[in-house]
Design a protein that fits this description.
- Helix 1 (14-27) crosses helix 5 (115-126).
- The protein is globular.
- It has a 5-stranded parallel sheet, sandwiched between helices.
- The chain is an alpha/beta fold.
- It has one domain: 3-Layer(aba) Sandwich (Rossmann fold).
- 38% of the residues lie in helices and 18% in strands.
- It has helices at residues 14-27, 39-47, 67-74, 94-102, 115-126; strands spanning 6-10, 32-36, 55-59, 85-89, 107-110.
- The protein is built from 5 helices and 5 strands.
- The longest helix has 14 residues, at 14-27.
Length: 136
């Protein structure tokens, strides 16, 4: 399945998934966002379900398969190696930043995972203007 504007967000924290999908919906409502709780689930979606997203956002510190291990795995698959991957983390150590870049990360997003900071980051990839909140 080829979707023109889409992403996969990989994070085992439901709160982070909710903030990301809400922010993306405000920044780029036409973008399809798929979520995965594990890197293994994302790899299944990418390989078995033939999902080809515009971007992949992956948490650095995941149980079982880390964001770096995920990067290394997909960069070995011909059809996946050119998908831009943005790694997000609370505070990655310097050696992990170097390893992420060497493993093929497009960018590293430092959080806290707050709605407006996620909106601002997503405008770099999906929008040309900052998101605005609807006032009640």
């Amino acid at each position: 399945m080829l979707i023109n504007k889409s992403c996969i967000f990989i994070d085992n924290d439901p709160y982070n998934q909710a903030v990301f999908t809400r922010a993306l919906g405000d920044v780029s409502p036409e973008t399809i966002c798929l979520t995965a709780s594990t890197a293994e689930d994302a790899i299944y979606m990418l390989t078995k379900e033939n999902i080809s997203p515009s971007y992949i956002f992956v948490e650095l510190d995941m149980p079982d398969m880390s964001g770096i291990d995920f990067l290394k795995a997909i960069k070995q698959v011909h059809d996946l190696k050119d998908i831009p991957v943005i790694v997000h983390s609370l505070s990655p150590p310097a050696n992990k930043i170097i390893e992420m870049k060497e493993s093929g990360a497009l960018a590293i997003y430092y959080r806290p995972y707050e709605y407006w900071s996620v909106c601002n980051m997503l405008t770099l990839y999906f929008g040309s203007q900052m998101a605005t909140i609807q006032q009640n």
